[in-house]
């Protein structure tokens, strides 16, 4: 045992790689754990040696029959009869059946007196009014036996279906165990659910009995509970009776016989009742899917599979044992209620609470007062505590608390750290599985370290993998289980041919269970969840997991909750194809902290953080502040409901939500209808003009409100948006505002002043100030867009004290003719910079195409006797015809393969048209090298305003005709994007040949177009700063 622990808990590759665990189990705890004890027993049984958990897990999935047989026989206090052989009939996950010759009784095993004696505590029921009810195992077993005997006298028997509307208290547990003791099948729901919601779940089952709380409590809202129960009973024609769990009065309209649980317990005879054993796979629970995309699915779970899986998770993975007191914050509608109930089989005392969270610290107070040893909660509650500034470890006596669990959604890294720093240093187990399997795929392990943001391990005997495109992947993928497991549901109730069950779990990946979560498995064997796969967004061809966004947003203190969904907005006339008419947009819904408003500054901060810490693809198109997000009765957020609301579609089953009214606030949000809003007139006053500009900005950015001092570029503005904005300004005011105006007047207030005061020139100057400073300036030349606007963020990330000036192309406003040769641009720009700095040394930088211009400027300045202190090319490509011969031949060799792969990706019906397009573009390329221009722009260029289109076409033509000549002066700093542009020749071979004064290469791990975007612009700015410092 010692050897098993030492190799498993202290040897961890991740530590050697710089990863520090958030918590490490003590050697004493690991040696004494039930995981260690079972491992030793399995080694003795099989003759195998399991020095690490990975070896144990590999064996358990490879030899799952041996594992389950050994676990069944090892589990102390487990009462069963019959034969454990065969362990499993069948080898495919969808149809395999476990222990067909084995008999057991679920309730009997939960209440057995061998694992813990009759005087051991079993249940503490805590009420909102402060009352406590405590039962020993003997007392609880006695009550259950009495109730079961009385129910049998009412005719309840094996195979009957019983439904329940219950609060989380002692009566709920007694009634549930009494029903299952008789072999009947139980389905539970929470007391706050509406009649419609309950009927969606219960009506298909044709239940015989209804268990229900009926008394009204001070914290209840909405329709009285008794009226709900009466309405439910009236709509269930199969119902033969109601078991009332408290002393509330039901309306006289109830026609079924009503029996009080207390009376049944009083007249039942425990001595006359015996716990009959039933087939291992007899139906125990019918659970329900959330129902947000249609009627809830009725998921049938077998008694033996549920019990055996829960025993494994409780005893081995959670190390639960007699003496533990476990409280899990749950309702009777959530599978964690069933999961906690099964902990009785391990001798655990369970703690329940039937009230609301009246104050944020309510649950911590309960944990402290009841000396809870294992506390189960959710990321949402931990976030609530963090936002409230709680320090539970100082505010309460948590000396008894030894472990915590969290489930329901992704638990982020910072929440692990918050628990460690504000609660105590203990194992925080992120567990994940669900209602579908009534258990966990990934969870805790008493012998393994805890890493922030990760579940400790895969569940034993479950071959959990990450799949992508129908095969295992080493990165993020679909969570699948590739082997049979006992807690797989028996099927869906009413799904006679099994087609619904197959479609739900086995149609996506043949032969394996597909769960619907996104997951990855780091090398250490841990697991990191990335949210639901049905919430994955496709943003301009790139899959974006919402979990990647939420992980960033949870660190922004102004945000309480967030949800990101996809909107399909019509952007073209009906005569276009469906794909052409609709554009996919990412919409971010935010619930902000009390007193916080969604300002332009906050929206800009959100966008910057997402771009910096995730990628520009993760930046939403729209950000909306909403009062609340739709949630199911289990407390899980419903992305499907929000998605429908954002798209103006009806929600399939609003009764599945506990707060369906919030959907109207989302559906009718003004920011979703900005394009259709009537613009206020520019008017005659500055105030009216600002209101008009605000409306223009809000329509342009698809975001409201935008403040008068919010920065155009911080909001995500670029040259194309600027051109559209100023075109709208011209149409509404008659004023022609140069594009460069936004560089020095980037706010609504500044732009209004520029318009009102007629202070700006009619055409954009070539040389524009971008950032003030002291000393000799850095001159930055535009890319193919003709504007330096795309470099705004990079410039503002520079630490140098120097001023920065941008050089913009002629013709941006359509008022000047464009320049068609790089040499002409260089000469013109030199004239401009000399008007500001007559003599060198000069510092020059150019992004993309601009690198060619600054290279030629350096050539001309050097020939004129001037000195260039810095010449920086930001990932500048050259026309392939000017590459050295070997590079050019390699490019020509690869080019047909590139084109063939592109052609194969084109739908067959469009290939002829694509070939014509490719041939035309090739012919135009030859023409441009001879001095011509393109006769028809590509799709992107065609979408630009005419002036920008002309500039872009001119830049493309200038690039195809410019051959860089040898440069003998100062070294060239070449900043290279590590991800090469597709179908482009590598320019470095040319720059190495012509930069005779030396070439310094710095690389940034991104693509060409992401070089000047977050998070890469910080690295680019640092390299430029270093170059300027050494100039």
UniProtKB/TrEMBL annotation:
GO terms for biological process: lipid metabolic process. InterPro entries: AB_hydrolase_fold, Acac_CoA_synth, ACP-like_sf, AMP-bd_C_sf, AMP-binding_CS, AMP-dep_synth/lig_dom, ANL_N_sf, PP-bd_ACP. The keyword ATP-binding applies. Keywords: ATP-binding, Ligase, Nucleotide-binding, Phosphopantetheine, Phosphoprotein, Plasmid. Residues 684-759 form the Carrier domain. Pfam families: AMP-binding, PP-binding, Thioesterase. GO terms for molecular function: acetoacetate-CoA ligase activity; ATP binding. It comes from the Bacteria. SUPFAM superfamilies: Acetyl-CoA synthetase-like, ACP-like, alpha/beta-Hydrolases. NCBIfam families: ac_ac_CoA_syn, PRK03584.1. Belongs to the ATP-dependent AMP-binding enzyme family. PANTHER family: ACETOACETYL-COA SYNTHETASE (PTHR42921:SF1). This is Acetoacetyl-CoA synthetase. It comes from Cupriavidus taiwanensis. The lineage of its organism: Bacteria, Pseudomonadati, Pseudomonadota, Betaproteobacteria, Burkholderiales.
């Amino acid at each position: 045992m010692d050897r098993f622990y030492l190799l498993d808990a202290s040897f961890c590759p991740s530590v050697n790689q710089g990863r520090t665990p958030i918590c490490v189990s003590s050697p004493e705890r690991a040696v004494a754990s039930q995981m260690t004890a079972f491992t030793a027993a399995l080694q003795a049984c099989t003759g195998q040696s399991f020095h690490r958990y990975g070896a144990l897990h590999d064996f358990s999935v490879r030899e799952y029959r041996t594992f389950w047989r050994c676990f069944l026989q090892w589990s102390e206090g487990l009462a069963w009869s019959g034969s454990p052989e065969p362990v499993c009939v069948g080898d495919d996950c969808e149809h395999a059946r476990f222990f067909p010759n084995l008999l057991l009784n679920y309730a009997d095993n939960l209440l057995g007196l061998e694992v813990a004696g009759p005087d051991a505590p079993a249940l503490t029921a805590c009420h909102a009014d402060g009352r406590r009810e405590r039962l020993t195992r003997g007392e609880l077993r006695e009550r259950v036996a009495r109730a079961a005997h009385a129910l049998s006298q009412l005719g309840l028997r094996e195979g009957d279906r019983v439904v329940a509307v219950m609060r989380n208290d002692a009566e709920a547990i007694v009634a549930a165990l009494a029903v299952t003791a008789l072999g009947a099948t139980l389905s539970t729901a929470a007391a706050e659910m509406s009649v419609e919601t309950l009927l969606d779940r219960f009506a298909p089952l044709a239940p015989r009995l209804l268990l229900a709380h009926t008394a009204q409590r001070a914290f209840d809202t909405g329709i009285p509970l008794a009226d709900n129960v009466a309405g439910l009973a009236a709509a269930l024609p199969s119902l033969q009776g109601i078991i009332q769990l408290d002393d509330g009065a039901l309306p006289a309209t109830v026609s079924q016989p009503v029996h009080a649980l207390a009376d049944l317990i009083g007249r039942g005879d425990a001595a006359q009742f015996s716990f009959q054993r039933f087939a291992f796979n007899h139906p125990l629970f019918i659970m329900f899917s959330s129902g947000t995309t249609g009627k809830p699915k009725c998921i049938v779970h077998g008694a033996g599979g549920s019990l055996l899986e829960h025993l494994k998770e409780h005893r081995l993975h959670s190390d639960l044992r007699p003496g533990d007191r476990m409280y899990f914050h749950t309702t009777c509608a959530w599978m964690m209620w069933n999961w906690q109930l099964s902990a009785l089989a391990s001798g655990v005392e369970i703690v329940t609470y039937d009230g609301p969270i009246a104050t944020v610290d309510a649950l911590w107070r309960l944990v402290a007062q009841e000396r809870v040893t294992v506390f189960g909660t959710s990321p949402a509650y931990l976030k609530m505590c963090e936002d409230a500034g709680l320090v539970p470890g100082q505010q309460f006596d948590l000396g008894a608390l030894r472990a915590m669990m969290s489930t329901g959604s992704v638990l982020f890294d910072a929440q692990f750290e918050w628990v460690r720093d504000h609660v105590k240093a203990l194992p925080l187990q992120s567990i994940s599985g669900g209602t579908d399997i009534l258990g966990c795929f990934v969870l805790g392990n008493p012998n393994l370290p805890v890493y922030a943001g990760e579940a400790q391990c895969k569940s034993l005997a479950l071959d959990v993998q990450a799949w992508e495109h129908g095969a295992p992947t080493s990165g993020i993928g679909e969570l699948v289980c590739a082997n049979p497991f006992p807690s797989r549901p028996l099927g869906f109730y009413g799904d006679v041919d099994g087609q619904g069950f197959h479609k739900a779990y086995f149609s996506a990946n043949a032969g394996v269970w597909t769960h619907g979560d996104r997951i990855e498995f780091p090398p250490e064997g841990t697991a990191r969840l990335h949210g639901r796969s049905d919430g994955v967004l496709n943003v301009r061809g790139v899959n974006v997991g919402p979990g990647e966004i939420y992980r960033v947003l949870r660190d922004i203190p102004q945000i309480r909750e967030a949800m990101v969904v996809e909107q399909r907005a019509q952007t073209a006339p009906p005569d276009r194809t469906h794909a052409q008419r609709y554009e996919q947009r990412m919409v971010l819904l935010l619930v902000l902290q009390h007193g916080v408003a969604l300002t332009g500054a906050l929206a800009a901060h959100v966008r910057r953080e997402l771009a910096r810490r995730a990628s520009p693809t993760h930046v939403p198109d729209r950000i909306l502040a909403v009062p609340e997000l739709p949630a199911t009765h289990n407390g899980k957020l419903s992305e499907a409901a929000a998605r429908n609301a954002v798209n103006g579609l009806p929600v399939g089953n609003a009764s599945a939500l506990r707060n369906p009214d919030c959907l109207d606030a989302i559906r009718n949000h003004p920011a979703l209808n900005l394009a259709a809003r009537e613009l206020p007139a520019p008017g005659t006053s500055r105030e009216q003009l600002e209101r008009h500009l605000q409306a223009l900005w809000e329509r342009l950015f698809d975001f409201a409100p935008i403040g008068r001092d919010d920065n155009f570029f911080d909001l995500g503005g670029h040259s194309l948006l600027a051109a559209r904005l100023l075109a709208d300004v011209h149409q509404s005011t008659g004023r022609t505002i140069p594009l460069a105006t936004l560089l020095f007047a980037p706010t609504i207030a500044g732009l209004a002043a520029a318009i009102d005061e007629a202070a700006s020139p009619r055409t954009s100057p070539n040389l524009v100030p971008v950032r003030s400073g002291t000393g000799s300036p850095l001159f930055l030349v535009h890319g193919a867009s003709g504007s330096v606007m795309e470099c705004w963020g990079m410039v503002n990330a520079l630490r140098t004290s120097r001023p920065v000036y941008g050089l913009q192309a002629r013709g941006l406003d359509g008022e000047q003719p464009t320049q068609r040769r790089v040499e002409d641009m260089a000469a013109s720009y030199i004239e401009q910079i000399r008007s500001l700095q007559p003599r060198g040394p000069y510092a020059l930088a150019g992004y993309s195409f601009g690198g060619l211009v600054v290279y030629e400027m350096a050539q001309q300045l050097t020939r004129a006797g001037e000195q260039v202190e810095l010449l920086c090319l930001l990932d500048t490509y050259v026309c392939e015809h000017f590459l050295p011969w070997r590079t050019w031949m390699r490019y020509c060799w690869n080019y047909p393969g590139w084109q063939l792969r592109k052609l194969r990706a084109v739908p067959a019906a469009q290939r002829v048209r694509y070939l014509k397009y490719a041939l035309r573009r090739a012919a135009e390329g030859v023409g441009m090298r001879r001095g011509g221009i393109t006769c028809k722009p590509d799709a992107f260029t065609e979408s630009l305003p005419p002036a920008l289109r002309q500039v872009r076409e001119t830049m493309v033509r200038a690039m195809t005709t410019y051959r860089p000549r040898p440069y003998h002066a100062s070294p060239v700093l070449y900043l290279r994007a590590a991800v090469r542009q597709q179908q482009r020749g590598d320019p470095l071979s040319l720059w190495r040949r012509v930069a005779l004064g030396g070439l310094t290469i710095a690389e940034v791990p991104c693509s060409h177009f992401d070089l000047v975007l977050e998070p890469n612009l910080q690295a680019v700015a640092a390299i430029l700063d270093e170059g300027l410092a050494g100039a």
